[in-house]
Specification:
- The chain is of the alpha+beta class.
- It folds into 3 domains: 64 residues; 57 residues, no CATH class; 157 residues, no CATH class.
- Helices cover 37% and strands 22% of the residues.
- It has 9 helices and 13 strands.
- Strand 12, helix 8 and strand 13 form a beta-alpha-beta unit.
- Helix 2 crosses helix 3.
- The C terminus is likely disordered.
Length: 329
Amino acid sequence: MDNKILESQKGIPYAPPKRLGTKKQVYTQAILQKIPHATEGKVDICLKVGRYKISGGIETDCPKSELTLTFEELKNLINYIEQYYKPLELEVEKFISVGNTDSKQLLLQFKSIADSDEEVATQLIESGLLSDKIYITIDLIRKQKALDDFIDAIDKDYAESYWQEWFKINKWILGSEYMEILDERRIDSGNIADYLVKAFDGFLDIVEIKKPNGLKFWAETKDHDNYIPSSDLIKAITQCQNYLYEIERESNSAKFLERTNETKIIKPRCMLVFGRSNDWSADKQKAFRMLNSMYTQISIMTYDHLLSRAKNIFGISDEDNIIDEDLPF
């Protein structure tokens, strides 16, 4: 049938009838009609749905039942179907209604779902209901919030356990070289690292976390006019060296490989996160560079170095806001 608007003998415009289904004794049909309103100059779009009899194999226009929805009823039905059809098809319990929602409200709704149920959020993206750009924006919002929390927390005297948990949730700030934080932390019966991680090349590395405050990075006095590591830092470095040694000893252990998901072990490296550097002089920065050059398997980072690197990744300064008002979806 041609896609055109028809007109009845009484001059009422209507769309071509749409067959909704056929059974043995009835067929179902829908017709959209433009009915003149009682008020002069106004019209209503109505929907007539009917089941019509089939007698002796011949279709008739004799209704078994008919229902005509007014314009308001039709509009409410359309909204109802738009809101609930796709969630029912996807079998999701949580979903976003986008009918009259502005982009900022939509983003907040989606973030709430993504935070509580990643699988539902993924289904919404994969179904085509929402652009995958919204996920990118959500990720940026989370990281901006994480940076704000990081900046606030490094000035407080939180326990080491706080930071161990924080980095586990926000492992991205440790750098892109780490693909995964393993569930296993135990090297052997006497050594438990903060994190055993799988690097981007598939090999096993270590991340060791110390507090930003309460531990001195540099010794109180210089040696031959040189800055030297504090006893706190030397202890932490020695701990990392011991972990690396014990991991290499376990490299041929079938049990250890099983506990670390068969992650390969060749010359493991360790990132040590220790102390602050926000008030360092140029001479201390130089001494830090020289200190790191001494170790082939250990990389020392302060909390302020991590923060600066994270900001640089996103191209932001302290004054910048990572999220624009005009969101990309």
